[in-house]
Amino acid sequence: MGDERDINQVVKQNILHLLEQNGTNPSRAAKDAGLSHTAIRDFLMGKSASPRVDTLASLAECFNVPIDSLLSEEPMPELEGELLQVFRQLTGDQRLMLLSAARSWLRTVKS
């Protein structure tokens, strides 16, 4: 049971971070995610149990972050979120080209 409380605390902190980062509030984010208007607030206040996977998925989509960023001990830095957002807009071929270029660049800066 201790682990469940720990993960709930991590999720709460990450949601609070995302709310602040996006300049929104729990009610608005819940609406944008297709949840009841009190869903996020109730979780943050401890009135509801751990959010279900589909709730986390809706929140992740709403904030345009991968679901694992809600479960991670450290919130994803803004730059990584922006990079992921741009990456998602690329076609498959463009993604491969970008990945190849990034790997090449890493090789040059490491040597």
UniProtKB/TrEMBL annotation:
Q: Which Pfam families match?
A: HTH_3
Q: Which SUPFAM superfamilies match?
A: lambda repressor-like DNA-binding domains
The protein's matches in Gene3D superfamilies, at most eight in alphabetical order, are given as: lambda repressor-like DNA-binding domains (1.10.260.40)
Q: Where is the HTH cro/C1-type domain?
A: 30-70
The molecule here is called Helix-turn-helix transcriptional regulator
Q: Which organism is it from?
A: Donghicola mangrovi
Q: Which domain of life is it from?
A: Bacteria
Q: Which InterPro entries does the UniProt record give?
A: Cro/C1-type_HTH (IPR001387), Lambda_DNA-bd_dom_sf (IPR010982)
Lineage per the UniProt record: Bacteria, Pseudomonadati, Pseudomonadota, Alphaproteobacteria, Rhodobacterales
